[in-house]
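cron nightly-structures :: item 1 of 1
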Amino acid sequence: MRASREARDISLREMERRSGINSGYLSQLERNEIAQPTPSVLSRIAEPYGEPLEVLMEWAGYISADPKGISPNRKRALNFIPDDINDQELKALRAVLQALRGSDTSANSLLKKPHRYDLELLGDEKRTVRATALALLREMDADRSSEPVDLDQAMVVAELVKAGEIELDLEEKRRLREHFGHLVDWALKNLQGMVNLDSREVFVQAGMHEKRRRFVLAHEIGHAALEDHRIIFAYLDDYKRLNPEYADRLESQANQFSIELLAKGDRLRREFDGSRPSMANLKQVTDRFQISRQAGGRRIAEESEQDCAVAIAWRTDSGRGPLYLAGYKVWTSASFERRYRWRALGHPAEEIKAALASIANTGVAEPFISGDTAGSQTVIGIEGLDTHFAVLAMLVPERKGVQIRALRPLIGAR
């Protein structure tokens, strides 16, 4: 970058004037002291420095050459590409995507399953995502009510259009099946939502549960609303792809945007906190805001000002398949974390897994004892919910005075 600037005989001060970026920050960039400037910054300095934005994004590590031979636009439309994917599966995915959107598809994206791409976002990232969602709600004049977000209106405000369902016509399916057999259905199953930012079209998989569908739509709106996403996707082509780590981060940001929009920022949390934490309360607010139990449960656990935690284990497939206990997650409220330090010191894994399994088998789970930071032994009450896709457990400390003598002590309790 320094060489580019000096070759154009431009000072840092002049570069600041042209780009609107502080000269001290630009100097740090030129000295390679900033690991990964945001795409928003790169888009502002590309023209003044005389470098294509694609080049700057490669230098910053956002995009790289594609070893799998699949375009970034198509890769973003996949639920996942496993490391052990074979050549035939990859060819089937490419063929299906090409049939769906054409060879010049731009900025296709897919909502990854929340428990697969569940990166913890930095504070600045979360604030930016929430501010963008709230700005959209204000533009819709929908930020002050407890009514479910009207996603049709949100699409209009975001200048997007619903273009139909992710599906192939019979002739296209027949032709592809001649080459790929059952892999065509495998590929279609792993596509949930796509957005084409050139045409502003959004496609969603047919037959999806309504709350899931809302989450997917809000996720795709996030790709269109978040500035860095628009910049990144506008400069991808068929020969470059997103750095996998950054691609996962963008998907996590879009997931975060989805819940920020559907929960209307802080409003869902405030309504939940109007009563003592309970599964009945969770059901009530998620129904009111039209959010899935899983997304709402995590949101409550992360945002609630009361002592509570939520554990979720997903099923290995839809239709109440076997419980995937190895991949369960636990979220704790800030006050719960201060009291029990589960995130910092480790949560009682065996007790929680046993509770989730019991909820799946019988619908209920026994409370257990946990030590808190004050050295006291506390009864952790458990309420469960068994859904089509996952099992949820809400963990709430019992009020003082509950007898704990008969409960099995927690191994290693502090």
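cron nightly-structures :: done
The chain has three domains: 2-61, 72-262, 267-397.
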